[in-house]
Amino acid sequence: MLADFGKLARPEGQAMRILDPNGTVLRDWRPGPDDHANPEIDRGQLRDLLLGPLEVRWGHGVTRVVPGGGDGVAVHFADGRQEAFDLVVGADGAWSRVRPAVSPAQPSYTGVTYVEAALDDVDTRHPDLARLVGDGSVVVFGVNQALVGQRNSGGHVKVYAQFRAPADWHAGLDLSSAEGVRSRLLARYGGWADPVLDLLRRGTGFVHRALYVLPVSHTWTHVPGVTLLGDAAHLMPPLGAGANLAMVEGAELAEAIVAGSGDPDTVVRAFEQRMWERAGRWARMTTAGLERLVGPDPAQAVAVFDDVHAS
């Protein structure tokens, strides 16, 4: 699997250029030829690699999980069926249907919204934007807002408009109308340099992604037969930690169960303690990072990446 990962990963994707809203280049980091420390890979490609050897049953939407039955933990499916399991692991994201079985916590809005767009065949259709984004990412920081272009594989670029706004910022706007969303965003980023705004002008497929988080130190009283991992357990700002934590936790839990002796519930309790400690540290860091990256002082946002590249 590692060899297959190497064929798809992009070490050059570590490159990053930071601009100000006038288009002035403030930072331009490029990895060296032997720098493979943090390669990029499209999430869909990584998912397919990890799921390749597994037998996955798709199309089984879960409505609720009920622990405590004599025959195990009851999982209720959207099609009306019900099955019992010895262990249910809620790895089902921000709006987990498993979480209520162990915790009443609900995600809360951070005050920051992302609107995602896409550029396809950027090298042939938009060569000027291909140069702007480079091999990795271009980031432009303003007051309480930012604009990001991130290269994926196959000439595809993801564009993220990031800004602080009330949860109902789109009141009266049809989010399914690409031109309506584009117009609203261009007004919000009014006065920014034209080459930067072209990321929005030429982007397609706008998707609204308001950022929600769970409490920084989210834990729960252990419930036999049920646990959580990833965003279901510790939803935090998307600053590069969440997906990595989920993969580490999934591997750790699986290895602990396979290697464990005695009561499996003891193994799960120990896993939860380790997860909570580590996730709490990352939740605090990413929460502080979001305050700086989408905040009133763009210089603080740039300083976040200065710190990363100095370490």
From TrEMBL:
Q: Which UniProt keywords apply?
A: FAD, Flavoprotein, Monooxygenase, Oxidoreductase
Pfam families given for it? FAD_binding_3
Gene3D superfamilies annotated for this entry? FAD/NAD(P)-binding domain
InterPro entries assigned: FAD-bd, FAD/NAD-bd_sf
Task: Domain (FAD-binding): give its ranges.
Answer: 54-258
PANTHER family the record matches: FAD DEPENDENT OXIDOREDUCTASE DOMAIN-CONTAINING PROTEIN (PTHR46972:SF1), MONOOXYGENASE ASQM-RELATED (PTHR46972)
User: What is the protein name given in its UniProt record?
Assistant: NAD(P)/FAD-dependent oxidoreductase
Question: Which organism encodes this protein?
Answer: Yinghuangia aomiensis
Lineage, broadest ranks:
Bacteria, Bacillati, Actinomycetota, Actinomycetes, Kitasatosporales
